[in-house]
Amino acid sequence: MAHAIGKKSNIHMxxxxxxxxxxxxxxxxxxxxxxxxxxxxxxxxxxxxxxLGASGxxxxxxxxxxxxxxVPTAGSVRFQDHDLSxxxxxxxxxxxxxHVGFVFQFYNLIPSLTAKENVALVTEIxxxxxxxxxxxxxxxxxxxxxxxxxxLSGGEQQRVAIARAIAKQPDILLCxxxxxxxxxxxxxxxxxxxxxxxxxxxxxxxVITHNTVIGGMADRVLHIxxxxxxxxxxxxxxxxxxxxxx
Amino acid sequence: MRALDRKVVRDLWHLxxxxxAIALVIASGVAVLIMxxxxxxxxxxxxxxxxxxxRFAEVFASVKRAPQTLAGRIETIPGVQTVQTRVVRFATLDxxxxxxxxxxxxxxxxxxxxxxxxxxxxxxxxxxDPGRHDEAVLTEPFAEAHSLIAGDExxxxxxxNRRRLTVVGTALAPEFIYSIxxxxxxxxxxxxxxxxxxxxxxxxxxxxxxxxNDVALELNRGVAPExxxxxxxxxxxxxxxxxxxxxxDQLSNWFVMNEIQQQASMSRLLPTIFLVVAAFLTNMVLxxxxxxxxxxxxxxxxxxxSTFEVGWHxxxxxxxxxxxGIVIGIALGLWFGRINTNLYATQFDFPLLIYRPxxxxxxxxxxxxxxxxxxGAMGSVRRAARLPPAQAxxxxxxxxxxxxxxxxxxxxxxxxxxxxxxxxxxxxxxxxAALSCFGLASAVxxxxxxxxxxxxxxxxxxxxxxDAQRQHAMIGLAEAQAIRAxxxxxxxxxxxxxxxxxxxxxxxxxxxxxxRGGLTGVVSGAxxxxxFDDQRHATIEPPAEGxxxxxxxxxxxxxxxxxxVWVKVLEGRRPEVQVPVADLIETYIGMPAYVHxxxxxxxxxxxxxxxxxxxxxxxxxEAELFxxxxxxxxxxxxxxxxxxxxxxxxxxxxxxxxxxxxxTVLACALGFGVAYNATRIALSERGRELATLRVLGFRxxxxxxxxxxETGLLIVLALPLxxxxxxxxxxxxxxxxxxxxxxxxxxxxPGTYGLSMLIILAASLLSAAIVRRRIDHLxxxxxxxxxx
Lengths: 246, 788
Known about the structure:
heterodimer, A: alpha/beta, 6-stranded mixed sheet, 10 strands, 27% helix, B: alpha+beta, Barwin-like endoglucanases, 6-stranded mixed β-barrel, 6-stranded mixed barrel, 23 helices
């Protein structure tokens, strides 16, 4: 693992999340599928990591385990004093509730709630949230707080989802193919929002994508292939999403 | 099996929870329908066959004493086919091992034994020997109640003479299918029975040789009884005729027909509720299924399946659900029908109550449930079949939500987001929410309907046995006695108070409306059997002049206070006078008319006489008193209040238990069916939302609130609505049961509402709990990827 010291002031050497020897096997015997084959990974406070990989590479499985949605077959994951490798629903729920923000490929907004209310949904149960208005302002949607998802474009919906994810001021922001359902122009707007959150709030961020271009905005890019971290590279400079194209 | 048919089977299996829930509701409707129809048939066919086979008469009349030669003149009345004259009297019996005096109706038999009309079904033994005066045939249930068989003996007081009678046989007869003693509300086989004896024996005992005091007629086919009754009354008038009645007013037959009528109303009202709810549920589930299968429908059409084939595919699915409901419903209905018929068999004395449900009843039930389910399904099937393939392959556009005033109000600001989700869903699909709410309310209503019977009957019993009757015993005299005979009763052992009354039969007429009933003379300051008004809940003093009428009689005659009614007494000198209505009272039993005791005697142009005496007695000395009554010649009937209450309670409690249990099962099936489907569909529609919330850190309990909250909200709304609906149903039932003989008071206690709501709440919670378990199995990872 490369442990280069980051240039950004908001990257500290403190590990936010630590994973060792992560293995995930689905099924058993002849039909067993090894989605992860012993992954070691540290996410440092304040860094933005892009996990790149083709479909079936195991990147989603890794994200699920880091996000407390799934537990490894073997290996350990620790976040602060939380042991995330134990299949205990209440522990995982508490971890997700208090520390993780999720951004989904298909936004997953609640259609019966307005933008502001979708954000409020999370701030109501979070220990130290910002206000929904602040969160929406941060993603550039201050003007559309009272719109329902059906009244918003895809990009706007995804930015609401980002606002919803960051409003609780999470320790870790996990984004699963956040631009997967969007055209490139809109995708860039969404990535800008993620970038801004990472810079301004110092939220440790992991973005999963198969789009190599996106790797440019990261502090670190991890290539996942065949259930392993095939390579890791650190960008000397983070490219602004506005300067990316695909 | 074709691929599409295989899909039907798999869909049914996949939706099994919902399929069963709907099937149960359909089954409930089918069950009630079959129960009511098959009981109806059993009663109707059995009584019709019984009446025909044993020649149940069509006109009945009582007379004080008419010469036998009058029979020939009665025969000449146009339309009369057969005349049967008899001697019929009441007597008290002294049954071995039974302290209380027992009442019997004595009916004469011709020398040949079997009469031409109102024939007996001899169940054991033989007819009395015409030469013997001490032989009697007993009604079978009465003999059974006293464990009497041929050869056993007992004492009867015939016109004051104690006679030892021998049982020679037991029998049943079409005129005593429902045999209740005077003053009773329910049959009591140990205290009232019918005795058939030789004509000679009874004529001798009651001094009616060459005479008769009862006549029954069979009419030519198609002859209406009314003109015959008029002519018969004219003939019998000078012999003390108390007015002839048609078969429909004969007491036993009236109860049988009334029961048939009640089953008929039940067969219309209740199944309708269940089937309407079933139609709605089918619609709800099918709409949802079709929404999730849009792409499959598109695919089928893209492959070249026709609109009809696609529609037919879903029709088959509904057919499958309905079929399951029908099968369960038929099984349940036949079972309930048998229980119901058996209940009637204990109340009604049929020689054989055949329970043989017709294919017609089954066909009606099957047809009705198919029509209901299909009409519920039609809209969604049509929508599915008409989906253009291209559009069907697209996911449906997301539902559009709007801001409501509530959300912007002060209260709205205060709501948390999960509550907002619940409220917005109700607002977004108001019809569905309203129908679910209605379905749940119906369940509560059916429960209220079944439980309120207890309240009504309690109220009826309280009003009839306690408020209106305060005596311990009422004695009917063979002949009206001068008032001084009251002292005899007052001085009997253990008698604390005695109060006379008199009842005569009379025709009440206003214009061309006539009612034949009883006119009761009540003494001033009556305390044991006063005039009691259920409306004011108070006793009414008999007015010095004028009538006090039950409201039901006043309605029939269309009179109010101050109007005048022609009263024609059918006894004694048969006076006819016009009397003003002085007051109206509410009562649930009969259609009473009261006058002052003195006014009645004045009207009859007789010195003060009484035909009944009401007694308050010292329970410690009952045995002595009963023994004395058994000896007393002037006593023809003894009615004990406690015995009447006991028999009322035993019959009512038993029937009620069965009835309430049946309907509780049905109401729960309804509540469960609606709540389960509502929740299950909410889960299927919002599984992704809920899983997303779990990913965002919501606990299971918190998302359960969102899932169950909507159903919960609908239940909360449905509970009071169901109580209201239940009140409406109960009042519909009460008005269906509103007859001249009795009415069902519409009384529903808070406890009944409370218990009904609790039962349905429990049934709904059970269904919610079943769906809730699925939340534990939500796939959190799946939602991250695919769109629905």
